Amino acid sequence: MARLTESQRERFETFRRAFLAEVPARIAAIRKAATEAGRRGTSRAALEDLHHLVHQLVGASAIFGLHALCGTARALEDLVTGLLEGAAPGAGELDRLTGALERTWNETATPRCRESKV
Amino acid sequence: MAASPLRRVLLVEDDPDIRAIVCFALQSVGGLSVEVCASGSEAIAKAPRFLPQIVLLDVMMPGLDGPSTLRALRGLPQTAATPIVFMTAKVRPHEIEEYRRAGACDVILKPFEAAELPERMRGIWSRIHGEADREPT
Q1: Domain span at B122
Q2: Of A76, B22, B24, B90, whose Cβ has the fewest other Cβ atoms within 10 Å?
Q3: What angle (nearest 5°) sits at the alpha carbon of residue B36, between those of residues B115 and B3?
Q4: Which of A15, A22, A59 is the closest to B24 by Cβ?
């Protein structure tokens, strides 16, 4: 384990808090993109936009230690990857997994979790 | 011949939060000089001037993805032989081998401990040069 100074530890925690503060906006953007991608006849570009947003959340939530959120986002990413590869969309699957993402965040975003260290 | 110590890293990552924490870890914890790029095309523009010793490259990015950026960097005389390390959050079993075949010298999986990254990069750097030193002349 790297030996960190107190100020380095504080900086890492600052990065984590900044990420946590952005998660609601990231999830809202995913909800919007999922709604767009779920519309009948939506273009591949809409799915790619959704995939990009979800993939970023998978990576960042993993690095900042939000494992439950990462797992739910990964399930959504797998679904979108499948859709991009030509899988037939299951009825309501995008909506269901996006809702799961929102619920996971709501359960995660307690004051106790926000205060915990990486 | 012993390699010079690792000093210059080109970081290519499209997510701003990951970019910030990785850059801080490499610079402030690891004491490395880091040029930060938010896209593959930015990396291709900056690399010939920065002359990185190693590139830390995200695999999945909009526009030019990691493998495409790697190919483009290989096409530049200044970075034709620069070691490139991929980082990715999504790996299917066969993909790490594909990335290596594409020219990546290593693959770092997300999640990783950002504070540990400088040592991991130095380890990769040492390994590359150890292997190079063992090659017959």
Answers
A1: 8-134
A2: B90
A3: 70
A4: A15
Which residues, listed in sequence order, are joined to residue B57 by a DSSP beta bridge? B12, B86
Q: What is the pLDDT of residues B94-119, one digit of tens each?
A: 888 889 999 999 999 988 999 999 99
Task: Answer whether residue B1 is part of any domain.
Answer: no
Q: Which of residues 19-38 of B touch A (CB under 8 A)?
A: 20-21, 24, 28-29
Enter the pTM of the model: 0.89
Mean pLDDT in residue range A10-35 = 96
A22 at interface of B, judged by CB pairs closer than 8 A:
yes
Task: Report CA-CA distances (Å) from B57 to A4, B48, B67, B105, B109.
Answer: 25, 16, 9, 11, 12
Please list the alpha-helical segments (H only) found in A4-116: 6-38, 44-63, 67-84, 93-108, 111-115
Instruction: Name the DSSP class of A39.
Output: S
Structural domain contains residue B76: yes
Structural domain contains residue B59:
yes
Q: Which of A22, A52, A64 sits opposite B62 (nearest CB)?
A: A52
* Position B3 in a domain: no
Of B64, B113, B76, residue with least CA distance to A3: B113
